[in-house]
Write a structure and sequence with these properties.
D-Maltodextrin-Binding Protein, domain 2; 3 domains; alpha/beta
């Protein structure tokens, strides 16, 4: 029998190679895998040294696969995805009947949590485990039955079941508004303290994008307070630090509770605001369909 330890390449190098080949960037591969650029480069060098073939070449500061690299990428990707699908199926069988709902952190905190008790009241025999994350569902650390995330994020081969529009608009606290003797005005917004949510990659609407979409000739870049956590920015807004951009679905409950207000009428429409997904390789169970119908009703 063949000794796989002697014939296989270093297994720890396969994920970095696949991600770099697929994304065409060591930086992007490192972000996806949670590794440094140096670590990704080291693993790729180890793979090249092990098989004795150059897999990538640089041209004009861009990274390209060699012919051998393209052939290896096809084999590695097919093997890894086959293994992933099979193990996901095994995990799915061992879930003991619970539904795993993957949700973005902000949707989980501000949209799902205020409503989930209503679902349990109507469906006391259905068990739901909520798994929250700041990462897109393509980077989910565990299998899920349903997923809730903004539509512009990477969803891979997951099947989109429902999409609903959303709106983006400025929000602040009554406390912040009380600092001004006159009503807040959109034309004076450069005079106010603005709060920014900055991520890598920047898959959230920025202030300058919001102004441009509405045809408002204002540029603020990141002047003000900058946060890499959306919940932290929302909490700072509630505490009266300044004005932030809020999303309709996640800000509604905070506005209804009087913690936040809409100081202006202007808002930006996102036709594809938030979507519900399921893994394409599994059929939905009956209890999962019940949860899906409830989520769609609530989003609508």
């Amino acid at each position: 029998m063949q000794n796989l330890r002697r014939t296989l390449p270093p297994l720890s190098s396969l994920l970095p190679f696949e991600a770099t080949a697929r994304l065409g960037s060591i930086t992007k591969a490192g972000y996806e895998l949670g590794l440094t650029q140096a670590a990704i480069s080291k693993q790729i060098r180890a793979l090249e040294q092990n098989i004795g073939i150059q897999l990538f070449e640089r041209r004009n500061r861009a990274l390209f696969l060699t012919q051998d690299g393209r052939e290896l990428q096809k084999v590695v990707a097919e093997t890894l995805f086959t293994l992933s699908d099979f193990t996901q199926g095994l995990r799915h069988k061992s879930s003991d009947g619970e539904i795993v709902l993957h949700a973005q952190l902000c949707e989980g905190l501000y949209w799902l949590m205020p409503r989930l008790s209503q679902f349990y009241q109507k469906n006391p025999n259905i068990a739901v485990r909520v798994a929250v994350s700041t990462l897109p569902i393509t980077q989910a650390s565990e299998r899920f039955d349903l997923a809730l995330q903004t539509s512009n994020r990477d969803s891979g081969n997951a099947k989109c079941l429902h999409t609903t529009p959303d709106t983006v608009f400025p929000i602040c606290s009554p406390k912040y508004q009380s600092n001004f003797s006159k009503p807040l005005s959109i034309k004076n917004i450069p005079q106010y303290r603005l709060l920014h949510h900055v991520t890598t990659p920047q898959d959230w609407t920025t202030w300058d994008e919001w102004f441009a979409k509405l045809g408002i000739d204002i540029r603020v870049q990141t002047k003000g307070e900058v946060y890499d956590s959306f919940p932290m920015m929302i909490q700072a807004t509630i505490e009266g630090h300044g004005i932030a951009l809020g999303w309709g679905h996640t800000a509604k409950q905070l506005i209804d509770d009087g913690l936040l207000i809409k100081p202006f009428n202007e808002q930006m429409l996102l036709p594809d605001g938030i979507s519900v997904y399921r893994p394409s390789e599994f059929e939905m169970r009956e209890d999962t369909s019940v949860l899906l119908d409830w989520i769609i009703d609530e989003l609508s």
